[in-house]
Amino acid sequence: MIFQTLNGNWVMNEKGSEAYIDAKIPGSVLSTLLVQHRIQDPFFGTNEDEVKEIFRNDYYFTRQFEPSADLLQQQKIELVCKGIDTLSKIYINNVPVGTTDNMHRTFTFDIKNYLVYGVNTITIEIQSPINYIENQRGSVNKEAYYVPEGSMRGNQYLRKAHSMFGWNFGPKLPDMGIWRSIDLVGYSLIKLDDVLVVQHHEKKKVNLEIQVKANIIERGMYIIQGEIVTPEGRVSAITETMEGNEATLMMEIEEPRLWWPNGFGEHPLYTVSVYALDMNGNEWDSKSYKIGLRTMSISQERDEFGHEFCFRVNGHKFFAMGANYIPEDSIYSFITKEKINYLLRAAIKSNFNTIRVWGGGYYPSDTFYEMCDEYGIIVWQDFMFAANAYELTDQFARNVQEEVIDNVKRLRHHACLGLFCGNNGIERSWVDNAEFRQNADALRIDTVRLFEQLIKQVCMEYAPQTFYWPSSPSSGGNFDNPNDESRGDNHYWEVWNENRYFSDYKNHLMRFCSEFGFQSFPSLKTVKTFTKEEDRNIFSEVMEHHQKTADANARLISYISKYFLFPKDMESLMYLTQILQAISVKYGVEHFRRNRGACMGTLYWTMNDCWPSVSWSSIDYFGRWKALQYMAKNFYSPIAGSIDLEGNVASVYVQNETRDIEPRRVRISLQTFDFRLLHEAEYQVEIMPGGVELVCTIDYSEFIRGIENRVFMEATFYDEEDNVVSTEIEVFVPYKRLALENSSISYSVIELPDEYVIRMMSGGFAAFVELDLRQADAVFSENYFHLTSKREKAVKLKKSDIRYLNAGTPEIQNGFELEQQLVIRTLRDTY
Predict the structure, then answer these.
(1) Percent helix, strand and coil across the chain, each rounded to 5?
(2) What phi and psi values does residue 302 have, to the nearest 5 degrees?
(3) Sheet of 182-187: strands edge to edge?
(4) How far, in Å, CA of 120 to CA of 62, rounded?
(5) DSSP 3-state assignment of 761?
(6) Would you tell me how many other CB atoms lie within 10 Å of the CB of residue 815?
(7) What span, in angstroms and rounded, lies between the C-alpha atoms of 228 and 226?
(8) CA angle, 420 as apex, 109 and 215 as ends, to 5°?
(9) Helix 337-349, helix 366-375: angle, nearest 10
(10) Which of 76, 301, 315, 449 gets the highest tally of CB atoms within 10 A of its CB?
């Protein structure tokens, strides 16, 4: 196999124009125009509306290249397009060689007869996605009327990331371009077509069944060699002679090191390589995969609550903890390995073991899945269908089938892959959404054919060891009460959508809550990137433009009125919405974890943003952690404490999501805001693996009568070495009724070789203490915490976790400079 990339320097021009501009590929119309300063920033102000209109034009991407002599000598030469977005015509030396109509697929074209020695020219004409969808209509009796909130009518007709046409969290920027690698690949004699690795687990050994299919270019005898490299570097190999175009290799691994999700063990990876050889031992093609040795299934066993829905890895059932994951950027060319790694590292820091790749975006890059393998993050993988009704024409069915085959074959070997899911939200929409049901009823039949037949059959054939689920939420398909809380997975939006109190979570026991969430504003630093000073009012045109959910800013104000006093300024308002978001999700997660068994997973909506906006994310577009991401570190801790307060009665729990018995010492205290101790108790508990332990239940009515607004209770959890591992607090009245005093926090900074230690003390109770830096961003060891005693509180900041806002910003050199940059805010400071 001979490889030659066409990535790099191209030129782009609008159809009908002779004005060429330099373009970098992988890249797009939008990335090219932005880099060349030809358009305004689409994220600033309301520029999105103007920028969107450029996608009504068609564009050409062109470059010249010289195929290598070795490439031209190959018997077969292919143009491999791993991502063209979306509708394109491809020309080699002005001769058409193929078309594309799906950004989610790899398209391969045989171009040997179109190449010449010396300079060749490739041109890719990319057609307007907006014009295309605006001119599409359903067949007779198959009209689709429903449009997802924030999107564009007709988005379902094009196999392109739906959210590029807008969604209730992101902009309408349906970009166009060559968004993934484009390469020339030459083969002779034999080409490896498909390699499937099937794991057979036995006691103290794993047998790998490696099924190989090849494309025989020249008839002859061929040998397939399989090789395994262990995590320690030990190599074993085996060969088999091909029969026809197939071969099966059986390889045994003794004393295997099993792959476990984050929090349950290590994540070792084995390298499996397959080589195609001729009878003289010459190599003609090869494929290599990193795999983890594990069993992975979804348990749906009947129990006292109905039918459970939980991940089972290596025979061990575990509670899934994580979030939904949307495209990392609205401009896909700007999605980098560094950005992906930053988000996944944040997931690990916050104790995630699972991420759901949402079905309205795109199938992430290989880098994403490789990192999830390395970090031990289970991936719930939606196929890219969301909140739409699809007409299953023959052409659409063939296109989808190839898309699913492509991506199943690409992803199935990854240890992180937990399940494939047909779509986001479609089955439930047909049942519970009156507006959605206005779609033609024939499309309901196509929904079953698409997600319960076509895609399911592809998954069963190409990934027989991976669980398939038809929709999310679902109870198993066929529109059978898809959001039934006694089985399957659930989406729970009543708190946010219906303005309910957070306590409503306690009225529900979902088996697996795969979507729920709450919005918040980003930080003022982020708001400043898309506003002028006069825009910084949450009901200004620009601020509402960056809020893609109808009436949501008003809803946030309504929620503030439930829990907090009205803030004194916009920055305080933004802070309060982040606190609201964090305690809302925390309330739900803690309730579900206390009821482990009845519920076996929570994935909140969402972890990340695709542009700077008001949204459900716990990390904003620029990577700034909101309060929710910090609180997730605690409520997703493998051994997590929580307080369930009903009136004046507090019940303290510990949940153990590990494979070990865990002892804990728990200290419960009741204090006034000036730290006068009113009541104290200590308990020793042992929590079994996967267990939930009620530590105590205390009625504080007699202790707090008349002073309810000036006291708090605290539960402090200690490990075996008597180190404080977490604390939880509760107050007995809404936060807006607390008689908080002005903060009197003193602090100092100590510099160590790799980190700073911020030492803080307070003369009285300080709620939701936020740390930030004036001219930099930072991820602290803790944030949005409470100061609950006169004892010193130490917060660590690794030097590697400081990021600077601009390239020219001076770096912090010592503890004194950090101290000068530090900004501290508490709840009392907001009014």
Answers:
(1) 25, 35, 40
(2) -70, 140
(3) 2-5, 182-187, 76-81, 107-110
(4) 11
(5) strand
(6) 16
(7) 7
(8) 30
(9) 30
(10) 76
User: Beta 745-751 vs 755-762: how paired, if at all?
Assistant: antiparallel
Contact of 193 with 215, CB cutoff 8 Å:
yes
Q: What SS3 class is residue 584? A: helix
What is the length of the chain?
Answer: 831
- Report yes or no: 712 and 648 within 8 Å, Cβ to Cβ: no
CA distance 347 to 385: 25
Tell me how crowded residue 823 is: count the other CB atoms within 10 A of its CB: 9
Q: Which helix (H) or strand (E) holds 820?
A: helix 815-821
Which residue has 């795999």 as its token pair? 291
Query: Any idea which residue has 């400079």 for tokens?
Result: 817
Say if residue 129 is preceded by a cis peptide, omega within 30 of 0.
no
Residue 204 and residue 225: Cα distance in Å, rounded? 25
pLDDT of 808:
80
Cα-Cα-Cα-Cα dihedral of 480, 486, 487, 489, to 10°? 100
Q: Is the peptide bond before 26 cis (omega within 30 degrees of 0)?
A: yes
- The enclosing H or E element of 555 equals helix 552-563
Tokens 């503890």 found at = 815
How far from 254 is each of 203, 206, 207, 236, 664, CA to CA, in Å? Answer: 9, 7, 9, 12, 37
pLDDT at residue 237, as a whole number: 97
Within the chain, which residues score under 70 in pLDDT? Answer: none
Element (H, E) at 458: helix 455-462
Half-sphere exposure of 664 (CA within 13 A, CB side): 31
Q: Strand order in 177-178's β-sheet?
A: 27-28, 177-178, 84-85
CB 79 within 8 A of CB 90: yes
3-state secondary structure of 754: coil
CA–CA dist 39, 21 (Å, integer): 13
Q: Which helix (H) or strand (E) holds 554?
A: helix 552-563
Which residues make Cβ contacts (< 8 Å) with residue 76, sequence separation at least 6? 110, 112, 186, 187, 188, 191, 217
CB-based burial label for 791 (10 Å; 0-12, 13-18, 19+) = exposed
Strands 320-325 vs 601-604: parallel, antiparallel or unpaired: parallel
Q: How far apart are CA 84 and CA 412, in angstroms?
A: 23
> Average pLDDT over the chain, rounded to whole?
97
Q: What is the pLDDT of residues 724-748, one digit of tens each?
A: 999 999 999 999 999 999 878 999 9
Distance in angstroms (rounded) separating the CA atoms of residues 489 and 498:
21
Backbone angles phi, psi at 172, to 5 degrees: -90, 90
pLDDT tens for each residue of 629-652? 999 999 999 999 999 999 999 999
Q: For 387-416, give the DSSP string.
A: S------HHHHHHHHHHHHHHHHHHTT-TT
Q: Return the structure tokens found at 552.
A: 């949501």
Distance between alpha carbon 231 and the CA centroid of its chain, in Å?
27
Give the side-chain half-sphere CA count within 13 A for 79. Answer: 26
**Residue pointed to by tokens 């890059």:** 365
Contact indicator for 670, 711 with CB cutoff of 8 Å: yes
Query: What's the maximum distance between 2 C-alpha atoms anywhere in the chain?
Result: 92
Q: What local confidence, expressed as pLDDT, does residue 184 receive?
A: 98
| Cα–Cα dist 101/106, whole Å | 11
How many Cβ atoms from other residues are within 10 Å of residue 5's Cβ? 13
Taking the alpha carbons of 440, 441, 446, 452 in that order, is the dihedral positive or negative?
positive
Beta-carbon neighbour count of residue 11 at 10 Å?
Answer: 15
